[in-house]
Write a structure and sequence with these properties.
The complex is a heterodimer of chains A (73) and B (718). Chain A is an alpha+beta fold and 73 residues long. In chain A, 18% of the residues lie in helices and 41% in strands. Chain B is 63% helix and 8% strand. In chain B, a hairpin with a 2-residue loop joins strand 3 and strand 4. Chain B has 718 residues and is α/β, with parallel strands linked by helices. Chain B has a 7-stranded mixed sheet with strand order 2-3-4-1-5-6-8, with helices on both faces. Classes of the chains: A alpha+beta (73), B alpha/beta (718).
C-alpha cells in the first residue's frame, strides 16, 4: 500500500517519493524543499501536519499531506 | 565611468530576516516608491557609503522566482525590468539546506549577486558551521555572514555590493545548473526562442528552463507579442517530456536545483548531531521548555484555537482600554465605581488628544478674533482644519498599539502558530489559517489588510480575502460605533453587548462572504490547503518590533492624514455654502441637497425626516473615510459642540441607532480600501460587483435587524 505523509506517526522520519496534485501546489511544496529523496520528520499530526524538512518547520493541511507520497527509511 | 548611484534589489525567503537586515542597512530613510516594470509599490531605502549612494529596494519575500505567487512574480519582474546593479540574496544560515535554493535560482537569472547569510549569530546555537570561503568559491560571488541584530558583517556586505556593482568581484556569466534529463530539451527550446522578441530581456537558457517548467507569465508575454507559434512548439516539447518520463518538467527542474543545493551543502556545511546543541545553562533550558510548551499548546486541536482567541482578545482589550477607556470603563461602571470609570475614560489617550485639540482650537480662535480676521476664515481654520487634524491624531495611538501588537506576534513567531490553530475553523469557510493575517491587520485598517492577501498561494483564496476583508470593522469604524453606543446606550452592559454583537456579526459576514466568493463566483468546491512555514518561537527584538510598528503607523498617517484633512475642508465648504453662495442655515447648503437625494433610502428605518438628510450626508462622507462619519455629524450640528450632543441632536431611537450602526459597519469600504481592492483584483468588474454586493448586504442585514428588533419582544430590552 502507498504511504502518504498524513499517515506518518509523530517522530518518524520518512523519505519523499513524489508529490501529486495541481501545478501550483506541487511547485510550492517542492520550492519549500519537499523534493523526491528528501528526508522529512513529522513533528505533530493533529489538525494540520507539522513537519521538519531541510532545517525548517512547515505546517501542511491534511489534504495536502495526503498528496505527498513517502516511504519509510 | 563608475556610477555614483547603485541600485540593490534585496530578495529572500519569508522569515529569513529580510526586514531586519533591510532596516539595519537603510535606517530611517525608508519610503515606498513605484518602480518601472513592477505595478506595485516597493519599499526602498538609501545608504551613503564610500562616496556612493546605495539604494536598496525591498522585494517581497518569496521561496523562488517561478512566479507561482504574486510575490514571486513581483520579485522576478523587478530583477529583470527594474535593472538593479546588484541583487542581494539572503539565505538563512541556520537552514542553508532550504534557503540556498533562492540564491541558486537568482544566479541562473543574473550574475550580479551578493549572498548574505543571515542570523549568523545563531549558527553556533543550532550546531551549524558553514565554510564561507568554500561556498564563495563554488558560487563565485561574495558570500557574507551577517547578523542584523548584533550588527556585524554589515560593512563587509556594503563593500561586497560596491565591488560587485563595479565589476571588481563576482561572476560575469549566469550560473548553469545541470538539469540532467532535461538538458537536450532545454537546448531545443533555446533554439526556438532566439526568435522571440517578447523574451529578449531574459537570458535564453533561463527562459527555456522556465518555459519547460510552465511559466504563465512568460507565456502571457509571448501570446501578447503574437508569438503563439513558438509557444506551441515549446508546449509540444513539454508534453512529450511528460509522456516519456511520467513527470512534470517543473518537478524535474526543482529537484535538479535542490540536488545542486544538496551537493553544495555537502561540501560547505557541517551540522552537529541533533538539531540543537544541548545548552547547559539552566536559564536557556527553561526558555526552551517554555517554547516547547507554547509549541505544544498552539499545535493542539482544541487548546490551539482557544489560546489564540484568548491572546487576541487580551490584546484588543489592552489596546481599546488605553485608547478609549472602553471596555474597562464599562466594567468599572457596572461594578459601581462610576468615578473610576470616568477617570479611565478622561485619561485614555483618545480623551487626552481630544482635550488638547479643544484647547488649541479655542486659543487659536481667540487669537484670530483679536486680530480681526474674517469670521469665515476663523471658522474654516478651527471648525474645518484643526478639527480635521485632531480627528486624525486621535487615531494615532490606536493605530500604533494595534501595529505594535501585530509586530510582536509577527516577530516572535506566534502569528504563524495562530494561523495553524485557526486553520480547522477557516477551512469550513473556504479559507486556510493564513487568512487570519489579512483579517487581523484589517481590524487595524482594511487597506494593508487587503494587501496582506498576497501571501495566499491560491488565487481563489486571495480573491475571497480581497472581497471580504472590508467587512472586518477597522479602527475607524470602532470609533464610530463607540461614539454612537456611548451616546445612545446609557447602561454599560448594553454598550458592551452592542459593540460585541456588531463585531461578531461583522466577522460572520466576512467569513460567509469569503465562502460565497469561492463557491458562487469561482465555483470552486475543493478546500484550499495550508502551507505555512513555522519559524522558531523566540523573544521578539525591540528594534524589529519598533520598525514594524512605525512602518504600519506611518502608512495609516499618510493616507488618513491627507484624506481626513481634505474631507474636513470639503465638508466645511459643503455645509457653509449653497447654490446661493454662503448660507447661514445649514439646510440650504450643498450638503443638505446631497443628503436629501439619498435620504429616501433611510425611510424604511423611520428616521425623523428633519435629520435623515444629515445621516445620509454623513454616510456619503463615510465612504471617503469612515472616520469622517462622526466628524461630519459634529460639523453638521455646528462644529463647536461635543460629540454626544451632536449625535443626540439626530434624535434617533436605540433600535434605529443599533441598526444604523450595523449599516455603517458593513455598508461600503472607504475610498482608499476600494482603490486597493481594485489594485489587487485588477478587475473593474470584480471591484464594482463587490461594492454593489457589500452595499446590498449591509442594507438588507441592517433592515432585517431593524425589523426584528422593532417587531419582537427584543424591543423591550431597548
Amino acid at each position: 500500500m502507498v504511504l502518504t505523509l498524513d499517515k506518518v506517526p509523530v517522530g518518524v522520519k520518512v523519505k519523499v517519493v513524489s508529490v501529486l496534485g495541481g501545478y501550483g501546489i506541487v511547485n510550492r511544496l517542492m520550492q519549500m524543499g519537499l523534493t523526491p529523496g528528501t528526508i522529512v520528520e513529522v513533528v505533530n499530526n493533529m489538525g494540520p501536519i507539522i513537519v521538519r524538512v531541510r532545517g525548517v518547520t512547515i505546517a501542511l493541511g491534511r489534504g495536502m499531506a495526503r498528496k505527498v507520497i513517502v516511504e519509510r527509511t | 565611468m563608475e556610477k555614483k548611484e547603485i541600485i540593490v534589489a534585496v530578495a529572500g525567503n519569508p522569515n529569513v530576516g529580510k526586514s531586519t537586515l533591510f532596516n539595519v542597512l537603510t535606517g530611517k530613510t525608508v519610503h515606498v516608491a513605484n518602480w518601472p516594470g513592477v505595478t506595485v509599490e516597493l519599499k526602498q531605502g538609501v545608504k551613503k557609503y564610500r562616496g556612493k549612494v546605495i539604494k536598496f529596494v525591498d522585494l517581497p519575500g518569496a521561496y523562488g522566482i517561478s512566479a507561482s505567487t504574486m510575490e514571486e512574480l513581483i520579485a522576478r519582474e523587478f530583477i529583470v525590468h527594474g535593472e538593479p546593479d546588484v541583487v542581494l540574496v539572503l539565505a538563512d544560515s541556520t537552514a542553508p539546506e532550504r534557503t540556498l535554493y533562492l540564491p541558486i535560482q537568482i544566479l541562473e537569472l543574473t550574475p550580479k549577486v551578493v549572498v548574505a547569510l543571515t542570523k549568523s549569530d545563531l549558527t553556533h546555537k543550532h550546531g551549524v558551521h558553514i565554510y564561507v570561503d568554500k561556498l564563495e568559491s563554488i558560487l563565485k560571488v561574495p558570500v557574507i555572514p551577517v547578523s542584523a541584530i548584533k550588527g556585524y558583517g554589515i560593512r563587509e556586505l556594503l563593500n561586497a555590493i560596491i565591488d560587485v556593482a563595479s565589476g571588481k568581484k563576482g561572476r560575469s556569466n549566469t550560473l548553469v545548473v545541470d538539469y540532467n534529463g532535461l538538458e537536450p530539451f532545454i537546448k531545443e527550446v533555446e533554439s526556438y526562442i532566439t526568435k522571440s522578441k517578447a523574451l529578449s530581456k531574459y537570458p535564453s537558457r533561463w527562459a527555456a528552463v522556465r518555459l519547460l517548467e510552465g511559466d504563465s507569465r512568460l507565456e502571457e508575454l509571448m501570446e501578447k507579442a503574437g508569438e503563439k507559434d513558438i509557444l506551441d512548439e515549446v508546449r509540444k516539447i513539454r508534453d512529450s517530456i511528460k509522456r516519456s518520463t511520467g513527470k512534470d518538467p517543473s518537478e524535474i527542474a526543482i529537484t535538479s536545483r535542490f540536488n545542486y543545493v544538496d551537493s553544495i551543502v555537502k561540501e560547505t556545511v557541517v551540522r552537529a548531531a541533533g538539531e540543537q546543541v544541548s545548552v547547559s545553562e539552566l536559564l536557556k533550558l527553561l526558555g526552551k521548555a517554555v517554547v516547547d510548551q507554547l509549541e505544544r499548546i498552539f499545535q493542539h486541536t482544541v487548546l490551539g484555537p482557544i489560546a489564540s482567541l484568548l491572546l487576541l482578545f487580551l490584546m484588543f482589550l489592552i489596546i481599546f482600554t488605553v485608547n478609549t477607556g472602553f471596555p474597562v470603563n464599562v466594567l468599572f461602571d457596572l461594578l459601581g465605581f462610576t468615578e473610576l470609570a470616568e477617570f479611565v475614560e478622561a485619561y485614555s489617550l483618545a480623551g487626552l488628544v481630544e482635550l488638547t485639540f479643544e484647547i488649541i482650537s479655542s486659543s487659536i480662535s481667540m487669537l484670530l478674533e483679536a486680530q480681526n480676521v474674517a469670521p469665515w476664515i476663523i471658522s474654516l481654520i478651527t471648525d474645518g482644519i484643526i478639527a480635521g487634524i485632531g480627528a486624525v491624531l486621535t487615531f494615532l495611538p490606536l493605530i500604533m498599539f494595534v501595529s505594535f501588537f501585530l509586530a510582536v506576534l509577527e516577530d516572535s513567531g506566534i502569528a504563524p502558530r495562530i494561523a495553524v490553530a485557526f486553520n480547522n475553523i477557516f477551512v469550513k469557510f473556504g479559507l486556510t489559517g493564513r487568512a487570519i493575517y489579512p483579517y487581523l491587520i484589517s481590524i487595524g485598517c482594511n487597506t494593508p489588510g487587503i494587501l496582506a492577501s498576497r501571501t495566499s498561494i491560491e488565487e481563489e483564496e486571495r480573491m475571497s480575502i480581497i472581497g471580504s476583508a472590508s467587512f472586518v470593522p477597522c479602527q475607524a469604524r470602532l470609533v464610530v460605533i463607540l461614539a454612537f453606543v456611548t451616546t445612545y446606550f446609557k447602561i454599560p452592559l448594553y454598550q458592551a453587548a452592542a459593540v460585541i454583537s456588531i463585531y461578531l456579526m461583522a466577522f460572520l459576514v466576512t467569513l460567509t462572504t469569503a465562502l460565497f466568493i469561492r463557491r458562487v463566483i469561482f465555483r470552486k468546491k475543493e478546500k484550499p490547503e495550508l502551507i505555512l512555514e513555522l519559524p522558531p518561537i523566540h523573544k521578539p527584538s525591540l528594534k524589529v518590533v519598533w520598525w514594524l510598528t512605525w512602518s504600519y503607523s506611518k502608512h495609516f498617517l499618510k493616507k488618513a492624514g491627507t484624506i481626513i484633512f481634505l474631507v474636513s475642508v470639503l465638508t466645511w465648504f459643503m455645509i457653509n455654502y449653497g447654490p446661493t453662495g454662503p448660507v447661514d442655515d445649514i439646510s440650504q447648503s450643498y450638503g443638505a441637497i446631497f443628503g436629501r437625494l439619498l435620504s429616501p433610502f433611510l425611510t424604511p428605518f423611520h428616521i425623523n425626516p428633519e435629520t435623515s438628510w444629515k445621516v445620509a450626508y454623513a454616510l456619503i462622507n463615510g465612504f471617503i473615510a469612515k472616520e469622517c462619519l462622526v466628524e461630519t455629524i459634529v460639523l453638521l450640528e455646528g462644529g463647536d459642540i461635543d460629540v454626544d450632543e451632536a449625535l443626540l441632536a439626530l434624535g434617533l431611537t436605540r433600535v434605529q441607532t443599533y441598526s444604523l450602526l450595523v449599516f455603517m459597519t458593513l455598508y461600503v469600504p472607504c475610498l482608499a480600501t476600494l482603490a486597493v481592492i481594485y489594485m489587487e483584483s485588477r478587475s473593474v468588474k470584480f471591484t464594482l460587483g463587490i461594492t454593489v454586493y457589500i452595499i446590498t448586504v449591509a442594507y438588507l442585514i441592517s433592515l432585517i435587524v431593524y425589523y426584528i428588533l422593532s417587531l419582537t419582544t427584543l424591543y423591550l430590552i431597548f
